[in-house]
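step 3/5: co-fold with 3-methyl-2-oxobutanoic acid
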Amino acid sequence: MYTQLEQRGMSEPPVNVSTLRSMKEKGEPIACLTAYDASYAALVDIAGVDLVLVGDSLGMVIQGHDTTVPVTVDDVVYHSRAVARGLRRAFLVADMPFMSYTNPEQALDNAVRLMQDGGAMMIKLEGGEGQVDIVEHLARHDIPVCAHVGLKPQSVHKIGGFKVQGRESKQAQEMLVVAKRLQDAGADIVLLECVPNEVGASITSALEVPVIGIGAGPEVDGQILVLYDILDITQGRTPRFVRNFQSGHDSPLGAVQAFVQAVRERKYPAPEHCFS
Ligand code: KIV
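step 4/5: write C-alpha cells
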C-alpha cells in the first residue's frame, strides 16, 4: 500500500518533509519554483526541482492582477490540481489566499480543500504573531505548514508597496522571534521574502526547519523564484533578486535546469540579486 507514495514509478523517491529537513542538515541547497499548470509542473519536475509552489502569485502572472489579493481558494485548488498531475518527484505546496485563514477553523477547512481537492502536500500561509494559533491548529491536525515571513505580499496595501523588510535591527529581531514562534507552533518550513542577507543568514541558523529564501541572500537553505520571472516571460520591471535563466538557453527546460544547477552550486543568488 505504501509503495505508491514512495515510488510512483520513479528511480528517485518523491521528496517529502523529511527529505527537505535532511537536505538542511546536510547543507544541500533546496531548489524550488512556482508552477501553475501540468505541463510546466512536469518540466520543472524533470529538471530536478525539489519543491513546487502553487503560489498566489498566480493572481499576478496568470490572471493579470496587480497584487495577489484577488486570488481565491477555488483559484488555487484549480491550479494545484493541474500541477499535481504533472509532478512525480517534487513536493507540492499550495498557497492559502488572502483572507482564507482568518481563524483556526476557517484555515483548517481551506487547508483541507487544498490538500484533498488540490492534491497539495503542504499549505503555505503568510504569518506573523497573529497566525501562531492558526499554525498550531493546523499542525495539531497534521497539516504540513510553510510559514511565509519577511515581505508578505498579501499585506501590500497595509505596508505600502513591495518593500525590503528587516533593514532596521528592531524589525529584524522581531522577524526572528516570529519565525521561531511559527516553527515552535508546528511550521515545517519557513519561507523568507525580501530581506537583507544577514537577516536571511541569522534566521536560517536559528531555525531547525528549512528556510527557503526569495531575495533573502545566499545563506538560506533553499531558493525559490517565480517560474515566469526566470523564463523572462514577465513583462516590465522585475525585482532585484530575479535572474533571467532563459538567457543563453534555447528551451524552458534548459533554463530551469540551469536554475537548479545554480542553486545547488550556490552560484545563485549572486551579490547583484541581494539586499543589504
Ligand atoms: O505566491 C508566490 O509565488 C510566492 C513566492 C513569491 C514565494 O509566495
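step 5/5: annotate
The beta strands are 30-34, 51-54, 91-95, 122-126, 145-150, 189-193, 211-214, 222-225.
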